[in-house]
Sequence to fold (444 residues):
Amino acid sequence: MSKKIFLMKFGRCAWHKCLFCGYGRMEGKKSSIENVRREFDSFFDKLEPGVDHITVFGSGSFLDEKQIPLEGRRYFIQKCKESKIKKLTIESRPEFIKAEALKEFEGIELEVAIGLEIADDRTLDKINKGFHLRDFEKASKLLHSYNIRVRTYLLVNLPFVENIKKSLDNSVEYALKFSDSIVLINLLPHYRSKLMGLWLRGEWNFLSRDEFYRIVDKWNKDSKIELDAETFWFTPKFPPELREDLSGVGEEFLTHSYFEVWQDYLLRWYEVPKDKEILLFLPCSHRKPYSESETHRKIIKILNELNLRGKIHEVMLSNAGLVPRGFENLYPFNAYDWDEKLETEEIKQRYIEVTSKRIENYLKAHRYKGVLCFLKYDSESYKALKIACNKLNLEFRNLLKEKTYKEIRKLKKPMQTEDALKDLYDGLKDEESIGILRNYVKLE
Ligand code: SF4
Fold:
């Protein structure tokens, strides 16, 4: 069967209160019959020949007539029939699954997906699911009485669940009694969801892909069960109401939970872009995003001149942690302000301790072919990098020569001087021309 996905973006989920769901809170286009028809027409007009299975995804319920007006639903069914669609998969909450609506799909092999999430009423209440197992069972029986397939979504790693494996065993066993297929979904924090707050307060954490696959491994080859480790492109995205002013110097601004969740994300979820084989640690800058500062503009110009930006992974070192260039304009990396003039000896020491550990963990999690830096020798970031690399027995090279730094260190902005930038240019050119970058460091 050739499949096509239709993304439903009308109205809003009638319930919109599930703790883990951000999409359900979002308001789509007005569910007017004109809008609905227009979207359906545009979808079917572009449908490639041979497609015979449509899956409708969207937050909410296809069978909710406030979200898709009855006339619109009938129009969609008619379009499916005209386009010779054999199979249709839609999503719905149990309360919208009614006999009259189901009869309209006659002639199409219908599958209805229900987000049950977990087979436990108490947890369903805690996550504010708004229905119970008996509602799911009733809906499932009704669907089956019309020969309609039931597809059940279960969430792996919900908050309030003490024993994930045991709970999942129970949920799968229960769901199999009422479903034709099951999808085990790795729960990730969507920025619009209430789960985001739990995550930022350290009351819940996501599973890495590996952790997820280890937990669901026993169902890996089960033909009735699908595994979904990544339902959306996940990066820590902070909703405006949770953003705080992170300007300041001190422990609070070094190990703030907002920085910590990002560092954890970089270790357990982030994948370094495939072609970026060489890691280049760079200093942070007062100006945000970093790339708008004078120093970074000059560094980027050199990397561009040498045509190395696609190959070199620029990662800044800061009190906020390690910041890959691609994330520099995301909160909180674009919103903190650590004034070096306010640093005490004690906080400098803490910065070195915390940053060296962060670098060490990062280098353990990600394998590069080489590690370079362009940092002042007396900076805390350089000292932290040295400690981390020593611990890992890892070679790295500072492209700023020690001799140069001795001569420029008293100047106001030493990293912007021609001498420092020449070192960077020559160092990168040298590395490139002699091919060292390919074998510069060998990790165990
Ligand atoms: S999970 Fe489903 S029912 Fe719950 S808020 Fe989201 S869209 Fe609505």
Remarks:
- The chain has two domains: 2-228, 240-439.
